[in-house]
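Problem 3 from the worked examples.
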Amino acid sequence: MPENAPNILHIFTDQQRFDTISALGNQLIKTPNLDRLVREGTAFQRAYSPSPECVPARASMITGWYPTRTECYCNEQPMPPVDTPTLMSLLSDAGYQTMGIGKCHFSPNSYALRGFQQRVSQEETISDRSADNYSKWLVDNGWGWVIEPHGVRSDMYYIPQVSVLPEHAHPVGWIGDQVLNFLETKTDSEKPWYCYAGFIHPHPPFAPPIPWHKEYRAPEMPLPEIPEDCEDLLSFINHFQNRYKYRDRGLDLNLVRSIRAYYYACITFIDHQVGRILDSLEQSGQLDNTLIVFSADHGEYLGDFGSFGKRGMHDVSARIPLLVRWPAKSNAGTICSRVASLVDLAPTFLDVAGISYDSDDFDGISLRLIADGSIRRDSVYSQYGRAENGLYMLVGERWKYVYSAPDQKEYLFDLKSDALEHTNLVGQLEFEVTLGQMREKCISWLHEQGEVAAVADDDWRLYPKQKVSTNPDDGLLCQDPPWWVKEKDLL
């Protein structure tokens, strides 16, 4: 590692859509501090998640590998073994001080270090409050009666809520404080540091604290995008998660607008923490020697296509915000339209830190090389599930190709003329050649990766079609806190 290697601040949210930054075109949302990162850095406007679900997306991010390599395809599967090289272990080995703050969602052990030298944890669903730093802090500071500090889940998942916690005790405010505490200890540090700040919001339930819940009002929020042929655009996973999230018995558009208002409020409260962190870096003289990356694991439908949640391959679910403020504010105000992915973060951190690496060690490419045009790739890949549950996507600057195994169905979108993905072009004669090229490219790539559960010879491996039960109560989610089931009589 060379002298004067930059610090690295990695800010990561959960379930934040790509279109939730004011400076990048959303005229309603208030994100002054993310707007500052846009002005002072590079905005990668075509960034995608390697998997539109929490655990596999994070497994890909920390390793720089696609799910075909991590073999983590959904939340229920473990990440690679704990001794697998990660961006944190590689930075630690090179001499960086590494700190993880907040949600990591490591599986199967949520509290593993996986290369961090230190962690301050805040996870969503916990079985032992004493094992989680945030939950223990709540108990120690008189908030032990709060059963669900992140909001009430299950049947209340998509009911807007006001947090019972004040700003400083709220999960988002607490993460902001922990980052500030860390930065205060590094003002005179001789070694560069890497700090990961993982926010659980705006993941549902949407529960901002007072007075942030009043930032937006339902009547001013846009209605969801619901195309005329919406059913043709959905896959099994959309119907499946609409069911278990209590959202498949009719669409209340006023409720959807309230959901969106509270979702935006959660993001604006996170933006406030970003501002506090930037101010601290600036006041301590560390800002211009720090690489700052802001991103998310995946998006959220918010009623678009009549759907809620993540896991789908529409842009609102699979596309993510990705902002990079380079050291010394180089390339400020740059907008990059080339496709990017979370697998690009690991090689980016090593590249900017001046740490040598073999490009074959990663599926990703340094964002610096993508931004300056040194390397140009024509597509990135995403996958959710596998075999009979597999959902696969190949997307470039114009075309998006998706295959859903549970539906035995293909989707093709022209993102240049149909940015909102209202029209599936499969079946239209003039696009048969493009469809065949995208299918062949996706299948060939999977063959190269050894993904035999997805493909057979030169075509998709067929599995039985799946449908959600016609019983509207079959499959509803129940997520009471595991620790509460054991301790409720003690409260």
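Problem 4, a separate protein:
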Amino acid sequence: MAENQTDATPEPTAEEISAAEISEQKAVRLAKRERLIAASDDPAFGAYPVRLPITATIPEVRDRFVGLGVDEASGEQVGLAGRVVFSRNTGKLCFATLQSGDGSRIQAMVSLAEVGEESLAAWKEFVDLGDHVFVAGEVITSRRGELSIMVKEWRIASKAILPLPNLHNELSEEMRVRSRYLDLISREQARRNVIDRAKVNASLRRTFDGLGFIEVETPMLQVMHGGASARPFVTHSNAFDTELYLRIAPELYLKRAVVGGIERVYEINRNFRNEGADSTHSPEFAMLEAYEAYGDYTTIADLTQQLIQDAAIAVSGSHVVTWADGTEFDLGGDWARISMYESLSQAVGEKITSSTPIERLKQIADDAGIEVDHPLAGKYVEELWEHHVKSGLTRPTFVMDFPLDTSPLVREHRSIPGVVEKWDLYIRGFELATGYSELVDPVVQRERFVEQAKLAAGGDPEAMRLDEEFLRALEFGMPPSGGMGMGIDRLLMALTGLGIRETILFPLVK
């Protein structure tokens, strides 16, 4: 089966090729691999050489020779490598487009006059779409002005055994997620996502470094899950013969660091929650948490706004980001801060406070068709707020002052009874980050843990356990602090307008 492609016969997508056809093409390519190896006395040549005499990359050559005129020779020789993403073979001249990992492309021209009859015939026989090839020769431009390499020497750098999908047709979302390597080869946005994520992480670290924060690492395997209300993954350690939990949050360990004197501390790492997966949730996700001694939930909100705005500049050059669909979204200025209880009261047309009886909250929920079955009044307040208020938030907004009974690690509000000093940040209609004035009184913290333990005993899988080691650390004295947590994947969603499976390089799929 012929492998060399022309403009008139583009290679079909992987979905369009039947299993039999793929198997046939694979057999053809495997046979070429065998012939390549058998024909070569030099083990460094073959189908997979160890090293090649590369002197430049495709992006470097494109930048260096950007001013070269039409049908002009530079007089300079380079050796570079790339993946063949287009191939056209004629009698005495073959054309190939080589693509680098960042998506940059350059044309390779293999002519009878430059490489000779035997080498040209070998190119036609062995080189297929998807192969990585090394070419060396003079940098020129074609009669159409296309930057090219007039090849004097070439080698196959790595033989592709399976055919690439047609790069002119967009992959299905399912294939993009399951075969991210094909997505990266074929789609600029996929490559951009990886680069943007790296820029965001670098920006976060720069901002923290400039403010005197120290980055640490805390355990992912824990003997007790805590730091958030979430269902954990459970595993077993053979070495210790004990049940362990994959981390749902680094909070309790980072607070230990604050007790120990690391007064500005943060971590960027992986968390795992054994819960649902949708457009904004993934069972495995990247998380940022930070704690600032002698701060509170207002100073940590200021920090969070700065972190996100700095990340926007790193990605887009300004506070105005452009999403994948072309929408511009402004992250600049000072973001609104609204009260959860006051905004809910306005939405339902009656005063809702921390003293509103749970029976009345249930009635309001029933009237709105909201199904809530929970013993805590605060859970009804939060569900009602999400139903009535959340969808109306278009600009970045800090939602302040949450119910006490749903926030066991948060300091009670300094002036409003039954409320804690906590905010959630909403951007694009989803929760991006949360921040607290931290609860540092070990006596009150123990009382909160006891209440959580009662919920756990009653069957609540998300309730926290009583963590004696953490309480012991608090008993040595933790300074008043502000703390925050933010999903890195969700931050990329806010900056790019994409769903969570697009912002994670290799998301978990069934």
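Solution to problem 4. The radius of gyration is 29 Å. Residues 188-210 form the longest helix (23 residues).
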